[in-house]
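queue> holo job accepted (PTJ)
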Amino acid sequence: MQKISKSHPRYQSLVTRELIAQAMKHGIVHETGLIAHGRGEAFDYLLGETTIPLADSAEKIAAAALLSAKNPVISINGNVAALAADECISLAKNIPANLEINLFHRSPERVKKIAAMLRKKGAHSLYGLNPDARIPGLDSDRALCEKKGIFTADVVLVPLEDGDRCQALQGMGKIVIAIDLNPLSRSAQAATITIVDNVTRAVPRIEHWVDTLKDTKSSHLVKLVSTWDNSKNLAGVMSFLSKRLNSFS
Ligand code: PTJ
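queue> job finished
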């Protein structure tokens, strides 16, 4: 890994870039994952590279949804494995939830490499290696999933999604939690709960809320989720971004 000076004003961003570039060289991240990362970086820059209060509200509701679920699943793709593997494993253990590898650019080699990496880091229940079901209405390999995992999940956390699957999962009646720095993306617009935050900050923050809400009555958690107004939160994020842009002019 290239040495990056801690005094560099963009230290964190450069370290993350290096991490994702290395993960691509090791076959974890697909090459288009670098492009997706760049788009995310641009939106993160606009957000101020921080968890804004509107994102934190969504992170709290995400925790409530995951805690009140019967079969919650956290979906893992290449970028998520590179940037937030430890955080996703820790969150899954805390809820508890299952992890499932689901790739847009699926190849058996990449699935195996990501699975080996997650297991090395301590992941226990891991789905995605032996798909035995398809998400209806999807033509891409993203449709491939496991019956015990995403297929029968009632709540699915989908960080860095590519859009179509988010809508298809909604069509199956599931609660879909999207983490996406782009509030305009199809995933962000289609999800039940949209978290406009970097996956590296969002997953630990959801876990913070899992710890906080763990002893809350299930009926209260369900009410928090059912009264959540995702469109209102997204409109708030858009307004935050436009005010921030205007403040520079
Ligand atoms: O590993 P695979 O094969 O499943 O492929 C994964 C990628 C990410 C390449 C694939 O899902 C894809 O092409 O995604 P998109 O359509 O580029 O969408 C990714 C979304 O994630 C974009 O809206 C980005 O703004 C957003 N994003 C990128 N980096 C981050 C992010 N959101 C949160 N945190 C990030 N670090």
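queue> The first helix runs from residue 11 to 25.
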